Automatic annotation (TrEMBL):
Function noted in UniProt: Catalyzes the interconversion of methylthioribose-1-phosphate (MTR-1-P) into methylthioribulose-1-phosphate (MTRu-1-P). Also catalyzes the interconversion of 5-deoxyribose 1-phosphate and 5-deoxyribulose 1-phosphate. Part of a bifunctional DHAP-shunt salvage pathway for SAM by-products.
This protein's name: Methylthioribose-1-phosphate isomerase
Organism: Marinobacter lipolyticus SM19
Protein residues bound to substrate: R58, G59, A60, R98, Q205, N256, K257
InterPro entries, per database record: IF-2B-related, IF-M1Pi, IF_2B-like_C, Initiation_fac_2B_a/b/d, M1Pi_N, NagB/RpiA_transferase-like
Entry EC number(s): 5.3.1.23
Statement: the UniProt record of this protein carries the keyword Transcription regulation: no
Pfam families: IF-2B
Length: 354
């Protein structure tokens, strides 16, 4: 069988968030899961930007990869006039889609650099597509490497349970997962007793996506309301809380899905390990600390309603930051494909990321 240009298709895991076809990109509409598996076909960067904004595709690495494909589509479908202006405009539009996950800006920077090296539209079409595929493939490889490193670091001698937050699996990445990749690997090695998945209010990435991904692969998953996490950790069965990241700053602070910070506080109180798993594309050494990270706030309707059904008084004032910052001091390990930063601080981060 010829090698597909869709990197996810070349991996054994069944779950994929996107399919690349050179002149179009298909995204699995994550807003409709688990009720419906519906794919959206896109032929331009504006559509991809819209899908990132509306969370058809979400998760830091997956956002970066789809944006890269968006730039490739802009070249492929350039109108024939000023193709360079069209590609630049596409990059600007994609960059404005969501603010917190640095993977988006990281991927766009790579695509922009590649674009600047192109002397014709023909060359841009080929090179930008190849680079987007490479970004996708590299992310998948990084996920697999992080799973190796995390297991080496945890050094388990018998099966144990973990708790996770949000969705960090194949749907959020190039195809295996960051935190969920580690959990998959534990399961593959018969070292996972059970994974507790926070439902992750308000968007419910945990119940709609993580529980779906894991259940269809036969990974033992128990879904819990976010507020149950303390009671679960108090029972002593969970050895590690394992989460992903949207941006990690030079001092080791981590922005991740809202509720991650509370989990880190809980983990420290219960003497449970707290591990962050993220590719180096999530590291932003240009920002000194988590205070500098732009935190996205989304519409209050995401809290007031579930699937359009009111769960709060109409028009009630809502505060809906969708990420929070966990201080480095509450984190036991940051696992990347380049290595593990144990008890992260600026020295450990610089040693690995310069
Ligand atoms: C591998 S995904 C890591 C993070 O991106 C994930 O935990 C998260 O916060 C996703 O947020 P989302 O708002 O769903 O894009």
């Amino acid at each position: 069988m010829p090698k597909s240009s869709n990197p996810s298709a070349n991996h054994a895991m069944g779950t994929v968030a996107m399919r690349w076809h050179e002149s179009s990109l298909e995204l699995l509409d994550q807003r409709l899961l688990p009720a419906e598996e519906h794919w959206i076909t896109l032929e331009g960067a504006s559509g991809v930007a819209q899908c990132i904004r509306d969370m058809v595709v979400r998760g830091a690495p997956a956002i970066g990869i789809s944006a890269a494909y968006g730039v490739a589509l802009a070249a492929r479908h350039a109108g024939g006039g000023d193709w360079q202006a069209e590609i630049k405009q596409a990059i600007r539009e994609l960059a404005a889609s969501r603010p917190t996950a640095v993977n988006l800006f990281w991927a766009l920077q790579i695509m922009e650099k590649e674009f600047h090296g192109c002397h014709s539209l023909d060359e841009a079409v080929k090179r930008l597509s190849a680079m987007a595929v490479r970004i996708h493939e590299d992310d998948l490889a990084a996920n697999l490497a992080m799973a190796d490193r995390a297991l080496e670091f945890m050094a388990p001698d018998k099966p144990f349970s973990v708790l996770t937050h949000c969705n960090t699996g194949a749907l959020a990445t190039g195809g295996y997962g960051t935190a969920l990749g580690v959990i998959r690997r534990l399961h593959e090695e018969n070292l996972l007793k059970r994974v507790y998945a926070d439902e992750t209010r308000p968007w419910l990435q945990g119940s709609r996506l993580t529980a779906w991904e894991l259940a269809r692969e036969g990974v033992p998953v128990t879904l819990n309301a976010d507020g149950a996490a303390a009671a679960i950790l108090a029972r002593g069965e969970v050895k590690w809380v394992v989460v992903g990241a949207d941006r990690i700053t030079a001092n080791g602070d981590v922005a991740n899905k809202i509720g991650t910070y509370s989990l880190a506080v809980l983990a420290r109180h219960h003497k449970v390990g707290f591990m962050v798993v993220a590719p180096s594309s999530t590291v932003d050494m240009a920002l000194a600390s988590g205070q500098d990270i732009p935190i996205e706030e989304r519409d209050g309707s995401e809290v007031r309603q579930i699937k359009g059904v009111p769960v709060a008084p109409e028009g009630v004032r809502v505060f809906n930051p969708v990420f929070d910052v966990t201080p480095a001091s509450l984190i036991d390990a940051i696992v990347t494909e380049k290595g593990v930063v144990h008890n992260p601080n600026i020295t450990g981060m610089r040693a690995l990321f310069g």
